[in-house]
Design a protein that fits this description.
Layout (H helix, E strand, L loop, with lengths): L1 H12 L1 H13 L3 H20 L2 H13 L12 H51 L2 H5 L3 H43 L1 H8 L1 H39 L1 H6 L3 H53 L5 H42 L21 E11 L2 E11 L4 E6 L5 H8 L7 E6 L2 E2 L5 H7 E5 L7 E2 H5 L8 H10 L3 H5 L8 E2 L8 H15 L3 E5 L7 H15 L3 E5 L3 H5 L3 E6 L2 E6 L1 H11 L5
Parallel strand pairs: 3-10, 3-11, 6-9, 9-10
Antiparallel strand pairs: 1-2, 1-4, 4-5, 7-8, 11-12
Length: about 600
């Protein structure tokens, strides 16, 4: 267990280095802002170093005026010195404030732009990742990575990393000045640094480990909430509220426990730093006072030294405070990089070319396919479909019907064998051209939040209003759409919840009609519809598929009889293929279903 924990800690320590390649191309356009921010940072540090010096001349002048010999002779015009010191201090403070403002704005703008670009990259990458990845992931966890984890990185980069950079530069500058001022006191001050670095390093590793567990627990919490809210009708229909509440409470408590542990470790780091700073300040004050009495320092120089000491130890406190945040951001960056480093399985080959003027000749040649290695769903499947032919695919649940559909639309690739359109291996064609040539209508017709027009034209974003209306008429949707409050500009709810099942299905058919694709896949597209709605959808399906190569995946024997040919699958193999009447008798006795 300890060895595994050490490995995970080392991996977390490498997380920011792994993250850099994903930042580099976003950082390049922000170089001007970063340079300006860096110059402002140096100016702000310089003003911090100058700020205590007017106080030195005032203190030394006052001490000398009161008769003490350690400060040297009193200036003749003490009032002028005090006035100049006060004015100088005001100017330095104003310049420091201006430099700090410029630094914060430049770094915050650059950091937010860079990480906004990273979030866009992450979203695009998630869209491209293969279904095998999404099948093994939970939606809530992916959403947490996309929103909360990237958000934490944005927050920490602006509120912790960049200020800590300024504090480190300030600390180095002050140590150099103090070493020139009095090497003995500088050495006393520096003794505490190794102890601080050792303590902060040990605790930050523990914080990073706990933060990773916390982010994981938050991802599980988001997944449970997403799942239960998406299925709220089922939850209420089966009175599952108590069960869901109990599961949510367990995940919520786990997230709380890890969060409290991380906060406790961060607080411990900050308080231990306070103790070290207090100890160092006491020692420096004692030794410094002795050196003033010995004449090695003036009271004003000791005042500058103590001011520097306080200012120098403030970065140490801030580093302790920011270390916890940065450790938490390290865990978030790990989770983001985990996704960005996953490669899509279904991608365009380097030699891929677009499919043009497809006729719809489809062939499966000795196709083997499995979701889990060693457990094939399709076993050496051979099937040839002529252009314009309408083929019903039937079979028992798990026979491989929907797998066939996903291979043809190239949502997945076969383990071996070839799927062809017009003689072209799909692997030799671009994904975009294949999917524009294959229109899909599913049982669960998902609509996106937006207008009816936007949903119909989703696959053809530059479609004209006339094209949208033509597709809606093909789907038999025009009449009910125009009867909606705002017609085609009516906003539908999430997943089309404000429309009936038949209305959603006809909009999905209109969306497929917009592609004008030579191949159409109907995957249980009429399941769950009432008799009247089914007749309307069937009519729309006929208009959509007229003259096109059509695959009808169904367990409905009437829908299968309306096809030119019926193909029956069993255990991933074609066991019957022929005219509907010849095949459906055997299919009815065996029972058909959806996999």
């Amino acid at each position: 267990m300890a060895e595994g924990r050490q490995r995970s800690v080392r991996a977390a320590g490498r997380s920011f280095r792994r993250f850099w390649p994903h930042l580099r191309h976003h950082v390049r356009p922000e170089r001007r802002l970063l340079v300006l921010g860096g110059l402002a940072l140096l100016a702000e540090v310089a003003m911090r170093l100058l700020e205590p010096w007017p106080l030195k001349y005032v203190v030394d002048g006052i001490v000398a005026a009161t008769g003490s010999s350690v400060a040297g002779p009193a200036p003749a015009n003490l009032g002028l010195v005090i006035a100049l010191a006060a004015g100088s201090l005001l100017v330095v403070v104003l310049l420091r404030a201006g430099a700090a403002y410029a630094m914060t704005v430049c770094f915050a703008l650059a950091g937010n732009r860079v990480l906004t670009g990273v979030r866009a990259d992450l979203y695009d990458h998630l869209q491209r990742l293969s279904l095998r990845f999404h099948d093994g992931s939970t939606t809530g966890d992916l959403v947490t990575r996309l929103t909360s984890d990237v958000g934490r990185l944005k927050e920490v980069s602006v509120t912790a990393m960049l200020p800590m950079l300024g504090n480190v530069v300030t600390l180095v500058g002050m140590v150099v000045v103090v070493a020139v001022l009095d090497p003995v006191l500088a050495l006393v001050m520096l003794v505490v640094l190794p102890v601080f670095l050792l303590t902060s390093g040990r605790l930050s590793r523990r914080i990073r480990h706990v933060s990773r567990d916390q982010r994981k627990a938050e991802g599980q919490l988001a997944s449970l909430a997403t799942e239960s809210l998406a299925a709220v009708k089922v939850v209420q229909a089966y009175s599952l509220e108590d069960r869901m509440r109990a599961g949510f409470a367990r995940s919520n408590t786990s997230s709380l426990r890890e969060g409290v542990k991380a906060k406790r470790l961060s607080a411990g780091l900050e308080r231990s730093t306070d103790v070290l700073v207090g100890l160092a300040t006491a020692v420096v004050l004692y030794v410094g006072a002795q050196r003033v009495l010995d004449g090695a320092l003036t009271p004003g120089e000791l005042t500058v030294f103590l001011t520097y000491l306080k200012a120098a130890f403030k970065p140490m406190r801030d580093i302790a405070k920011y270390t916890g945040r940065i450790a938490q951001a390290g865990a978030s960056s790990e989770r983001v990089v985990e996704v960005l480093e996953r490669s899509p399985e279904v991608v365009d080959a380097s030699w891929a070319r677009p499919l043009r003027d497809a006729r719809g000749d489809v062939r499966f040649e000795d196709v083997w396919f499995s979701y889990v290695p060693g457990h094939p769903v399709l076993r050496g499947l051979d099937l040839a479909v002529r252009p314009g032919e309408r083929v019903a695919v039937v079979g028992t649940s798990g026979a491989g019907k929907s797998s066939l559909v996903s291979l043809l639309s190239r949502l997945r690739d076969p383990d071996s064998g070839v799927v062809r359109i017009d003689g072209h291996n799909l692997r030799d064609l671009t994904l975009r051209s294949v999917r524009q040539s294959v229109a899909v209508v599913l049982q669960d017709s998902v609509l996106f939040r937006g207008t009816v027009r936007e949903n119909i034209a989703a696959a053809v974003p530059d479609a004209t209003d006339a094209q949208v209306e033509r597709a809606a008429r093909v789907a038999g949707a025009h009449d009910f759409v125009t009867a909606l409050p705002d017609g085609y500009d009516t906003v539908v709810g999430e997943r089309g919840a404000t429309l009936s099942g038949g209305q959603r299905q006809r909009i999905a058919i209109a969306r497929a009609a917009m592609l004008d694709a030579p191949v159409v896949l109907l995957d249980e597209a009429m399941t769950g519809l009432d008799e009247q709605t089914e007749r309307e959808v069937v009519d729309a399906m006929r208009r959509l598929t007229r003259g096109r190569t059509t695959f009808v995946v169904t367990h409905d024997l009437d829908a299968a009889r309306d096809c030119d040919r019926v193909v029956r699958l069993d255990a991933g193999r074609i066991v019957a293929s022929g005219p509907p009447d010849a095949v459906l008798g055997a299919a009815a006795s065996a029972g058909v279903g959806r996999d």
